[in-house]
Amino acid sequence: MYRHFVNSVEEAVELALRFKQEGRYDWFRGQVQAKWKPSSSMERAIERGEKHEFLMQRLMEFLGWAKTVPALSYLTDPVNRDQAFAILQHYGFPTTYIDFTTEPGIAGFFASDCKEAPPAGTHSAIFCLDTADIRRFYDENMPPSNSDDSEQLQIDLVSVNVDNLWRLQAQAGHFLFANHSWYDFYDLDRIEFPWTGYPSFPPRTQIYPEHRSGLEQLLDNYFEEERRRLHRENFQRDQRERAASGQPVFKQIIVGWNEVNDTAFVSPPENLPSWGAEFLKPWLEMPAESFHEVLGSRQTVTLRSAVNAPLPSTQLAYGICAAMRHDPSLRRRAVQWELLGLPDAVNRERLEALIREAWNGMRRLPYANDDIAAACGVLLELCAQPGCQSSDGGVILNAFTAWRADAMEVEFGAKGDSGTRGFCSAERLRQAISSAWVDKLPPEMSAIRPNDAFRLCQIPYRMFDFPAFSKLFGRELIPSQLARGLSLVHFNPARLDVLGLP
């Protein structure tokens, strides 16, 4: 092992770059503590006491969910194991894959990255790996690997592309897979330096992109739902233990109804043709996008406040729609929208962040340009209503009824999640109800209101005309979710399995 000592992270990066150019090393790994072993997150999880059975259950649940998502079902094939674990690794799931990068600057960032400054005198490190050398070492010193033998020492250098996993692409990520303490056999060379904070480049936003791909939005929803589920299970287990020891417990009363009340219909409602597989196919596709190809575009929209000028939300929607007309390729890029001339009541940074989320959540789906633009205009209106983010239900309702006088709250979800909530116009929601569904009702119920309709049916693909519902979803339910600051946001109405009252 060679240990090189320098004075700062910048010097460490420069030395690693020189070593890379000379061909001495091609993979790098940054660690805040030079004394830490380059162990896998699975090793660390087991050391913390996490049970292997629990982790396997989490893995099986993830793969079971992936199987229900057309764009991710390939992950369930064992031949795509590396892709599945690359995703899990980047979402904090313990794996036997160890992160490396081909970019010394990125390793320098991770050698400095910590929530709290380490103790004074801490030395950080960039570990340097010659992939050809480690292959040669294992070939010469270990018997041939049999992948079916779990007891045999295995090591593999994994370079894998996962379509739309932008954070992997942004970090130029690669992995070393090992089922043993490989660092006890092969000691990595390293560059050590005193920790003094982050280097001046790259910024955090380049390592963890502010823009999220469609895949990453789906994955964020999945892991948010998993977090909720584990929290519920822990709470329920705590309550059982309290009850067993005679301590007071929280009593939960749940009132619910069937997804379809068949007795209320002349004949039970059926799946509507507008939700058919062929029609929804473009809604469920996820074209591959390269992070470095889609990023970097900026568009400026300037609003004016002259007398008799259109409403700011109208101007914003017009500007975004006009930009898409001017450049039809714009929807293939992760645009950073720069908004000037906003009303004083609107926080520019927050609005631009919400529009970034709406843009990336909608642009790849078959929404019309004016639906995307309208959603951005609604976000401006809602950002002027501070009550949208309140924890008080009455304040939230007042904020949304100030936006739409007939605003009603609905709750909806897809397979495997506990759902989220949004607001929309009750009348526009009523107009989206399919006439075929209404025809299944007795004549005296033909003018049914949405509130009453949801007491009879909570299955969207039997109740709503998809073209009308998807337009309403894009224009009102997406921006209202985002304005609430919710941790789980649905952008795709085609994935919904349930829709009803909260």
Can you walk me through this structure?
It is a single chain. This protein is an alpha+beta fold and 502 residues long. The chain has 3 domains: 152 residues, no CATH class; 147 residues, no CATH class; 82 residues, no CATH class. The chain has 20 helices and 12 strands. The strands form 4 sheets. Strands 1-7-4-2 form a 4-stranded mixed β-sheet. The protein has a 3-stranded antiparallel β-sheet with strand order 3-6-5, with helices on both faces. Helix 16 runs antiparallel to helix 20. About 1% of the residues have low confidence.
Strand order of the largest sheet: 1-7-4-2
Spans of at least 5 consecutive residues whose pLDDT stays below 50 are 253-257
Please tell me the total number of domains.
Answer: 3
Largest sheet: 4 strands, mixed
| Alpha-carbon distance between the two ends | 61 Å
> What structural class should be given to the helix and strand makeup?
alpha+beta
The shape, in one word, is globular
Put simply, the count of helices is 20
Task: Summarize the helices and strands and which ones pair or pack.
Layout lengths: L2 E3 L3 H13 L5 E5 L9 H7 L4 H16 L13 H10 L6 E5 L2 H7 L12 E7 L1 H11 L13 E4 L7 H5 L2 E6 L10 E6 L9 H4 L6 H31 L32 H8 L6 H4 L3 E5 L9 H15 L9 E5 L7 H15 L6 H15 L9 H11 L3 E8 L5 E6 H7 L2 H4 L11 H4 L6 H4 L2 H19 L11 E5 L2
Parallel strand pairs: 1-7, 8-9
Antiparallel strand pairs: 2-4, 3-6, 4-7, 5-6, 10-11, 10-12
Helix pairs in contact: 1-5, 12-14, 13-14, 13-20, 14-20, 16-20
